[in-house]
Records
---
Amino acid sequence: MDCLLVRIKFNGMFFHHVKLSLRNLIRRWLISGINILGLGFGISCTIVIFLFVQHELSYNRYHENAGTIYRIVNKYSIRDEGLNYSPYQPDELPEGLKQDLPFVEKATSFRRTSIWVSHVSRKYQLNVGFVNPDFLEIFTLVPLAGNLETALEKPQSVILCRNEADMIFPGMAGNYEEMIGQAVEFPQQQPNQFMVTAVIDDQPAN
């Protein structure tokens, strides 16, 4: 019986405090509204900051070797402009790094540009990255068709992401094995045909 009486008393006190809180909210509606808006704004800011930090810390973390991948940046100065930084390196640098620095296992260059490519008289503007074969071993890519171990062994080979593959070959959308061996024309002097050797899944947004 004692336990039952204590429970009833506790429930009664709880509802009593709820009633008092509601009365204060109604009686002091302006101050209560400001407090509630301030609390909601503070919680919202906290959530936004948390999501921003989480997004920044997750940048490129989906690569299996993320902890051992480094980017080389050039630092140079121009008169009246101060220090400048550039990610572009000489094409010979990757091989030189592997020869001169024994702790460098793999090295690749990466040059990105926007160009028009064509297939069967249709043109598409794509963001294209020019790399060497080590790129496929440094970064984690999910193959949908083709062999990534040999995809860039021959010159003028091209690897397409899922989105670009479906856009260039709409009649084969989803059938990525059929795209292997197809030719895509680049805007350059002959020979300008690049052979599709692999199709990979689209990369995460971050």
Note: The longest strand covers residues 110-119.
---
Amino acid sequence: MIQLLGISGSLRKASLNTALLRAAADLVEDARLEIATLHGIPLYDGDSEAADGLPPAVQALQAKVRDCDGLILATPEYNNGIPGVFKNAIDWLSRPPAQTKVVFGHRPVALIGASPGGFGTVLAQSAWLPVLKALARATTAVAACCSRAPARRLPKTARWPTRTRASGSQNSCAATSSSCATADQAAARLAAGFSCACAMSRAAT
């Protein structure tokens, strides 16, 4: 069975993105989705790393990422960009440098997000793509967002999880979906193969 790991980029108890992952876990088929949060991960400090190594919370999350077949990043969007707490966690996960490819290489990564706004987390997801490419040249990144547009179903080859859809350096899918009023609706659309302005890319090899 495919083992997926979903990481929520929000610390809030009532986080929409954590709720999105919970809903996705109930809907995913032929796979198991484990949900992880960023609680306990401190701000990155190179001096602290040099003196004490990786914090226990970082080591535990690194182990979960290494053990999964695919990674789902559920990202909020703050001020049109990546949440600092989420970027900080990914920076920790890439330490030490020798671990970057071990943790992120050859592992499909999907970006999803939930937001009360009409554009969802499209800008945050776009900002994540160059970060993922920098982490590991072999990382496959898939960005899916929800916006207000007529619904159209994606072909099965574009559905998550897949390791073969993104065959070129840059692929764009014009398929769109209606806006998601709740996290459950967003997860249902994702699981059913719906996406909007779906930008699929594969890091250069």
Note: The CA atoms of residues 6 and 72 lie 4 Å apart.
